[in-house]
Amino acid sequence: MATDEAIRNVFAGRTDHLPAQRSQIVRIFTSSTFTDTANERNTLMRDIYPKLKNYCRNRYGLEFQVVDMRWGVRDEATDDHMTSALCMAEIKACQRVSIGPNFVTFLGQKYGYRPFPPKIPATIFDKVIQLLTEHEKSTETFKQWFLLDDNASPSMYNLQPISSILKYYTDPSQAELHKADKAKWWDAFNEMQLQFRYAAKRLLEKQQLKKEEAMKFLISVTHEEVINGILNVSKDIDQHCIGFVRKISNLQSDLSNKNAPSFIDVEWGKAEVDTEAQDLLTDLRDIKLREKLPTSRIFESSIDWSSEGVDPENNQAHKKYIDEFCDHFYTTMVSMIDDGVAKSNQATSTDEVYQEALSHLHFCVKQCRSFHGRRDILQPIEDYMTRSCQQSSDHHEQLPLIIHGVSGSGKTSVMAKCTQWASQKLTDANVIVRFLGTTPNSSSIAKVIYSVCQQICRIYNKDETQIPDGYSQLVAYFSMQIQNIPADQPLILILDSLDQLLPVDGAHRMQWIPVRLPAHVAMILSTLPDEYDCLATLKQVLPLASYVEVTPLPVDVGMQIIDDWLSSISRTVSQQQRQVITAAAKECSLPLYLKLTFDQARRWYSYLTVTPDDLPTTIPTIISLLLEKLERQHGKMLVTRALSYITASPSGVAESELEDLLSCDDVVLQDVYQYWLPPVRRIPPLLWTRIRSEIDEYLVERETDNNRVIYWYHRQFIEVAGARYLSNQDTVREIHSLCADYYLGTWANREKPFKYTSKQVSMFKLDSEDGKADRKVPNQPLIFELEGDSQYQSDQIRYNLRKMNELPYHLIQACRIDESKEYVYCSFHWLLTKLKATSIQELLGDFTMALEALPQEDPEIKLVYQAIRLSASTVMTDPRNLAVELVGQLSDQAASNDYPYLAKLIQQAAQYGAKNYPLMPVRSCLNVAGETLMATLEGHTEKVTALAISHNGLFLASGSEDKTVKIWNIASGNLMHTLTGHHEYIYGLTISADDRMLVSYTYIWEYGKKSPIIVWNLESGDRLMTLRGHTKGSCPLVLTNNCKYALSGCRVKGRLRKCLPPRKKLPETDDEEEDDEEEEEEEDEDDDSKKAKKAEKNTDEQEPAHNYVLKDIEDDGDDSADDGEEVDSDDDDENCNWYAVLVWSLENGKIHRYMDGHTDEISSIIVDSKSTFALTSSRDRTARVWDLNSFSCSRIIKEYNGGCPMLDLALTPDNSKAFIEGLWLGLYEIETGKQLHKMEDPQSSSSVYMTEISPDGSLIATSTVGNDIKFFDVETGDFLFRIEGDDRNYRLGMAYFTADSKYVVASL
């Protein structure tokens, strides 16, 4: 087990001396020669490896992989001479990642292929040529096949690709030419091989070569594999390595048999044993192997020679040997896997929180290895982090720091370097880092926050069980934890690539980010500028934060970085090649482009002339060049399909899955096997290994669904690969369909049919073009079980999460809608199992994905979705309630012949319910999904008194007499937050135009004693501020559309009066008499006089802004004794009728200005869409227009008819006119205050208590006492029609227009 200190260091973000990561893979390298163990390897591939895959997956949730670099490989794959180097790299990979066994060798009597090195240091090559020349041996063949590469350091002679000289070597379509070129190559190879061996022995004798240098020309590939896989292993070899030794008696007595060379080494062109090879084999097999491996790990067998070699089909003794060999192999593997898992659990912590933190630290270290320069960008980030670790009394809080730059600019490397710097330099700080998208728990914002909260709990010894599961509660908890970080243990939180987050839970709305941080907490975030509009959103959410742009590198710095990278792998470029790179770097010097350029340049040899066409100057074009070279080198069809599967998968694909998918893809197999018949119809593992070796730097490994998967790391690779391979919709459907078949288990344990080409039928002398073969792919149950096990007997149920999360997506993308309903959306077993394995949110996510992706909405899928959503609270309590809910809601619809899959679902649910519930519905008896009721939001314990819907339609806020506010997710019906803090029932709710803030208030008419106005973060539920000062009144509260101010009217008294400056004395006039006199005077005046008087009057009405410094409302921290509770002692003085519009700043929650002028209660308030003016109405029979720049009254509008109080308000869409309710409903012009229309019902009149203007501004609807809805023409003021209510005793009528203004929804 990792030590306690090591675990603490990982949680604290220390990047030095990292422990090894836990593996989820059993990966074995099988070493053997090409021909003599073909039967053994084919039998393992056909019968044993599938069993081991199932064992690992079902028992431990592990992935079993086999690296057999011999199986299925043809001569053409050796064209570039890289097979040996790839083998050694794969051995290291197996040793690094495998749990338990990692290396198996099969040794017989054949020493095997003995190639000379394809790259030879110039000093050694020159010695060889010199010796051969001195011994009068020809060196012309060497000069043809080897070229000097001065770009290597030291210089190397490189063996040229075979097809570069013999172009038909890799082209079996030209049969005769292909055969001739193969013969020419092997003649040249054997000539050079003999010459190299001769020279190596002589140089060794002369001590001009070291033994290890000489042996490179003498030993076989198998020998080199055993050296790296067994002989050089220093510890625990018995836990990782196995040797199988088989000897065939009488073999040497039948060397003339045509099959003998496949089982023993013979001299080239002779029927004689190659004694040198046999001596080397004997030393390896019988001496060195036994010295290193314990006898318990060496399995020996002996069989008699047969003229057909090893022939289990016709020789019973050979069949018995194969059966025993397979039994030994399987039981030994199982034993070693069991021991390996037990040891792994002891050696490495299985704790998920630890493994998540460790994974990101390893990724960080990897990114830092190739980091250069960037001091100008690193310095401000380091300064920011340093400030968080300094205790300063005048530094109270800080904001997050945002790093941004275009794709490929190197943001991730900058973030990694900052993490490493903080880890090493700021030793008192704890560092939490997440490179988003690189692990399953860093792909969605909910999982990221949960994981970070877990790590915070581990660091600061907090109770992890208190972390909530719900997303919104989680965001609130995260914010609270950030605020509670102790000052003596600073925290640095680094989140890279916000754009990589999945677009769920509003991740890219950024409302989860704490707006204010304690001084000792630093948060560094990075993002692309344009993806999901992340940068623009951040600037809206964090307008005052600091932003650092990662810009392209200067050309000279970029060239220095490329030189450093080349130097690190002992390479350089020629002067001509450097000129091409420099010219390209001037066009694009982004770090990703430089990395891609480096990967091209590292493969340039000094003898190659490079042109500008070899180095495109944009990232997409150079990626396309890379993919094009892959296609040319490894086969267009193979590369196209392999990369298509990776790109098409939503979360990545495991390498074992990729092999299985390629093995079921007959388009690929027909291309790979067009000239020969495989013993098992599967893709040879070497083929993908060779492709991956070329692009490994651009793939990321991450764990998802308990599997290690690979996916593109850079977004630009996703985009280029998608455009290149998945632009054709037919191809897209085909790829997704093959993936769907795989996760359905369609071809597990059965033969898949395919067609031979007419050429193959002729070439292989087949009877028919029809073929079929078992592809050896695993079955795909929803729950894994070993034979004889029961899910109820197992300690832990192992769900097939890969199938659950991949299958719905692929079926929908393949347009296999009926099957998606049969196996997923209308399968009760699927629905129940996924509910148990994951969550209702993930289940509903499958439905929303389908409904959004389908070109036409499927009614059955929608009905099931609506039913599950409607029953969310019930099934979350107990998933088994799903049966009751489905039957109770959907039985009637299922009876229709139009819904066959729904009928099957209800039948399955009824059968399940009959076994598990004593009382089960037999027909629809619950609220029915798909009708008017979409969801029931249950939670309040008293009557709901206020509602508000966010402008983006995502959230609903509700207030209640139970004194709480609840925020709901409209799409899912889930309760996000319950907000407490009020001491009276909720009077009103309003949501800001940017959907960031929710304001709730509880001031209740004139008898209210407690009136807190609270501003909340809508998504996180954080309490942002309290708006203090409102003392008395019933005026609604409104927010300006620019989200800067909150406004409400109130009577000034109590504490508020003490904080406001002295009030300007208002003239005492009889408003009614004054109005009458003015009207009479105006009748006798000419137009010029009217205008002059009007201007003078408006000047009088233009009241100056209050520029006084306002005192803060005293905050005693107790809302129970808030502003209105203080008893006024001066109600009878001149200020007893002081009414004002209060303006609060939404940045700090303080009163910013007040605007007074009304002499009676302010009834209503409304703000124009541009946030330039506010309009208030009052019982003083006036309405006032307030300028929100000067905070002064710019216009007084008076009620001309009857002198009634002005009450309800509404603005036209263009903000030019207002509807104001007085004695009648009047339409007034804002600019002049003139009444344009008096809107009256000719038959009856009654008080208006609600007005609604149509979106196009042409109609106005009024709800009146008497429950009637009346409609008027805005342009003319004419009455149009009424909708009469049924009951005139209750004021319940409401009317709302649809968005197109064509319809009205009315409740009567």
What can you see in these coordinates?
With 1308 residues, the chain is of the alpha+beta class. It has a five-stranded parallel sheet, sandwiched between helices. A five-stranded parallel sheet has the order 11-12-14-10-15, sandwiched between helices. A hairpin with a 5-residue loop joins β34 and β35 (1173-1178).
Describe the structure concisely for a colleague.
Helices cover 38% and strands 18% of the residues.
Class per helix and strand makeup: alpha+beta
Largest sheet: 5 strands, parallel
What is the typical, i.e. mean, pLDDT? 85
Percentage of residues in helical conformation: 25-40%
Total strands: 47
Rg calc: 40 Å
Strand content: 15-25%
Cα shape: elongated
Distance between the termini: 71 Å
Poorly predicted tracts of residues: 790-794, 1004-1009, 1066-1085, 1090-1109, 1115-1132
Strand numbers in spatial order across the main sheet: 2-1-3-7-8
Separate helix tally: 38
Question: What is the topological layout?
Answer:
Elements: H1 4-11, E1 25-31, H2 38-60, E2 63-68, H3 83-97, E3 103-107, E4 119-121, H4 122-134, H5 140-145, E5 146-149, E6 156-159, H6 175-205, H7 211-215, H8 221-231, E7 241-249, H9 275-292, E8 298-304, H10 316-347, H11 352-368, H12 375-388, E9 397-398, E10 401-404, H13 411-425, E11 430-435, H14 445-460, H15 471-483, E12 491-496, E13 517-518, E14 521-527, H16 534-541, E15 546-549, H17 555-568, H18 575-587, H19 591-601, H20 619-634, H21 636-648, H22 655-664, H23 666-672, H24 685-695, E16 699-704, E17 707-712, H25 715-725, H26 729-744, E18 751-755, H27 758-763, E19 770-774, E20 783-784, E21 798-799, H28 801-813, H29 817-825, H30 828-837, H31 840-853, H32 859-870, H33 872-877, H34 882-894, H35 900-916, E22 944-949, E23 955-960, E24 965-969, E25 975-979, E26 988-991, E27 997-1001, E28 1013-1017, E29 1023-1027, E30 1038-1039, E31 1045-1051, H36 1054-1059, H37 1071-1084, H38 1087-1101, E32 1139-1145, E33 1151-1156, E34 1162-1167, E35 1173-1178, E36 1182-1187, E37 1192-1198, E38 1209-1211, E39 1217-1221, E40 1225-1229, E41 1235-1239, E42 1248-1253, ...
Parallel strand pairs: 1-2, 1-3, 3-7, 7-8, 10-14, 10-15, 11-12, 12-14
Antiparallel strand pairs: 4-6, 5-6, 9-13, 16-17, 18-19, 20-21, 22-23, 23-24, 24-25, 26-27, 27-28, 28-29, 30-31, 31-32, 32-33, 34-35, 35-36, 36-37, 38-39, 39-40, 40-41, 42-43, 43-44, 44-45, 46-47
Helix pairs in contact: 2-10, 3-8, 4-6, 8-9, 11-13, 12-13, 14-15, 17-19, 19-20, 20-21, 20-25, 21-25, 21-26, 26-28, 28-29, 28-31, 31-32, 32-34, 34-35
